[in-house]
Amino acid sequence: MFINFWYPLAESAKLTDTPMHVQMLGQEFVLFRDSAGAAHCLSNICVHRGGSLAHGRIRGDCIQCSYHGWKFDGEGKCTRVPMMAPDARLPPRAKVDSYPVQEKYGLIFAFLGDLPEEERIPILPIPEYGQPGWAATIQHWVFDFNYERGMENGVDPSHNEFVHPTHGFSGERDDYHLKERKALDHEWGSWMKLGGLAPALPDPKMREASGRSESGFVESETGHHGVASIWTYIHPSKAMFIHQYLFESPIDEFHTDVYIVNLRNFLIEAKDDGRMMDRNQVVGFQDRDVLLRVRPRFSPKTNIKETFVKGDECVARYREWVKKWQAKGWRIDTAKVSATKNEVAYAIPSPARRHSKNWVIDPVPLLPAMEEQVSAAPAVAALIAGPWNKTG
What we know:
Blueprint: E1 5-11, E2 20-24, E3 27-33, E4 39-43, E5 57-59, E6 62-64, E7 71-72, E8 78-80, E9 98-99, E10 101-104, E11 107-112, E12 135-143, H1 147-154, H2 160-163, E13 184-186, E14 189-198, H3 204-210, E15 216-225, E16 229-237, E17 240-250, E18 256-264, H4 273-291, H5 313-327, H6 334-340, E19 346-347, E20 362-363, H7 377-384
């Protein structure tokens, strides 16, 4: 799991006038809205005696600890210690980590890390959101798999034929194979153009909207943005577009929050939202069921422990990007956290730690930074080289 990325912690509509307890990256957070309605995200551990802020109460612009009533504002600064006189000088160490927050696309994102604003990888953009002619839905699932396995599945074109019956023919066609595709890098990740023969859509209204009542060629494109976001563009016909944006948030090593923002340019009335969400859930749970059985549960540290062929290039590129972010020293040392979690309370380091000292809660331990690795493109090419690449 990595610090220094934007992660969705909740749907905006679900954060109201009570604090919300959230677990992410193996740590705990509190989300709350101040008197003006602005959302704030703090480390959940009170620096007094370790109480849970999320199980306390909102008082004006502050969250009040459930244990001894200490109040903290949206910047994480303690504003009141009830056992001290109102005019007493508060301890300088009475502060908790506060994380930058953005509300976009119906979600509350928090930047869980300490990078200054100009160095942060941005949230995956959704250019169609809120635009005329497009409708959006949001879905949230909690799945019991490691998020990296989920990300690799998202940029893997060859699973569609066998995992999703509506996406292919379950390998029954003798002429089935993946046409040669090349994964390309962009500023924050890799992407690949796809496409192939697919059956007619099973839903009559969707089939009518596509203008295609038989099997036909479907254009698509997928890629990852940062360590835990994916976009997938599906064009069942020249007039029918489905654009999906997947934000995965690792709760811990074995559980993942999955938020999907689905955009469509057909059947855009609200009465058809359920139709699209039902379809998304079927597909999402098909992926879940396969990933629950994948072993090992974590992605192998080296690709030689798996046999890569054509179609696996985007997965290989994602793993190389993960290595680059680990080389920066952003990966959490989960083994150390697990070994010490009953004796030490940790917090994801916030940007304030760059210019302020004297913190009570230890920053979460990270694996050491390494010298920036040389691009692994030749190694990736070697992994997928072979006679299968000559057929095109």
